[in-house]
Amino acid sequence: MRQMSSDKNSSRPHAPATRAVHSGRAPHDNFGFVNPPVYRGSTVLFPTVEKLWNRDQAYTYGRTCTPTVKSLQDAIADIEGGATTELTASGYQAVSTAILAFVKAGDHILMVDNVYQPTRKFCDYLLARLGVETTYYDPLIGAGIADLIRPNTRLIFTESPGSQTFEVQDIPAIARVARERDLWLLMDNTWASPLYFRPFEHGVDVSIQAATKYIVGHADAMLGAITCNERAAKYIAMAKDQLGVCPGSEETFLGMRGLRTLPTRLAQHHRAGLEIARWLEGRPEVARVLHPALESHPQHELWKRDFLGASGLFGVVLKPVSDKAVAAMLDGLELFGMGFSWGGYESLVIPFDARSYRTATDWQPEGPTLRLHIGLEDVNDLRADLEAGFERLNAAAD
């Protein structure tokens, strides 16, 4: 694991929150400025023919790496506990690059059924065209995943909690099976961020972040990150190089800026999200709340065992009501925007229907479903905005 700059003279390791502030920084290499500068460029000059032929210097071409990119890669690897991190231009590109690093024509992969929808599309279309078969599995399968493994199975992909429906997977149980069968274990760890789930301590080989979300944290940049252990590092590095994956300079800088405040922001997302979730549980319009940190969540004990905190993203299942009533509720919200991202400072809400894209499991909610992201606004204001929304919903339902 890479050491952060301020750790050089320390006799003890620092906590992840401290690493988020200090990792990847070398102020005295940059005239004392606390933030690494933004390096923009494609061409990198070599002083001699010999060095050019041998690629004998730290940076050789703008696409492969810059000091800006290396700073953030080092910081994320350090915080998440991995050996190396490779940055990508988006979270989706991180997913696709990580999978392509390990598969070839004729291979088979196991994909969790509640995965982020673009990941499912990548499997069903591009991977299928390349001759890689995907089997979707129940997110609650745990060690039972051993029964789905074939001679040509190459990797297991997990996402915990799952997109939109928020089931929590037994990652350690799946990791034991993967290690016994010599399979790669990949995880989309965006919900918990590098701070609230420690993937490599639970047997994961590759941890994927849509850094667009909590790492950037300000809804102003697209970025992805693939962090891996030592045995996976060479495969991820090769895939990144061969696919031409390249994060933008400005986006990388914004990711580094966001990383510095991640511990503080995420703690607020945790507190506010849980407070709103508990309030929603008491609303007469709500059938259930899909938040792993709630005691009512079916996998709450798994979450409590493996996770160090919760983010601001969760789901709500309403009692049966018309689409017109849901639209009346959402269209009039003042503080909750409607948009497909999350992880920024702002609160968001979208309606969703997971029934159409679950194939291994049957998702049958009691009524319409919403996904909420609780931002950094005052909780009382957010609650009042939702309360007014429920008043509109009830009026439209009458």
From TrEMBL:
<feature type="modified residue" description="N6-(pyridoxal phosphate)lysine">
    <location>
        <position position="213"/>
    </location>
</feature>
<dbReference type="InterPro" id="IPR000277">
    <property type="entry name" value="Cys/Met-Metab_PyrdxlP-dep_enz"/>
</dbReference>
<keyword id="KW-0456">Lyase</keyword>
<dbReference type="GO" id="GO:0019450">
    <property type="term" value="P:L-cysteine catabolic process to pyruvate"/>
</dbReference>
<keyword id="KW-0663">Pyridoxal phosphate</keyword>
<dbReference type="GO" id="GO:0047804">
    <property type="term" value="F:cysteine-S-conjugate beta-lyase activity"/>
</dbReference>
<dbReference type="InterPro" id="IPR015421">
    <property type="entry name" value="PyrdxlP-dep_Trfase_major"/>
</dbReference>
<feature type="region of interest" description="Disordered">
    <location>
        <begin position="1"/>
        <end position="28"/>
    </location>
</feature>
<dbReference type="InterPro" id="IPR006233">
    <property type="entry name" value="Cys_b_lyase_bac"/>
</dbReference>
<dbReference type="InterPro" id="IPR015422">
    <property type="entry name" value="PyrdxlP-dep_Trfase_small"/>
</dbReference>
<dbReference type="GO" id="GO:0030170">
    <property type="term" value="F:pyridoxal phosphate binding"/>
</dbReference>
<protein>
    <submittedName>
        <fullName>Cystathionine beta-lyase</fullName>
        <ecNumber>4.4.1.8</ecNumber>
    </submittedName>
</protein>
<dbReference type="GO" id="GO:0019346">
    <property type="term" value="P:transsulfuration"/>
</dbReference>
<dbReference type="Pfam" id="PF01053">
    <property type="entry name" value="Cys_Met_Meta_PP"/>
</dbReference>
<comment type="similarity">
    <text>Belongs to the trans-sulfuration enzymes family.</text>
</comment>
<dbReference type="InterPro" id="IPR015424">
    <property type="entry name" value="PyrdxlP-dep_Trfase"/>
</dbReference>
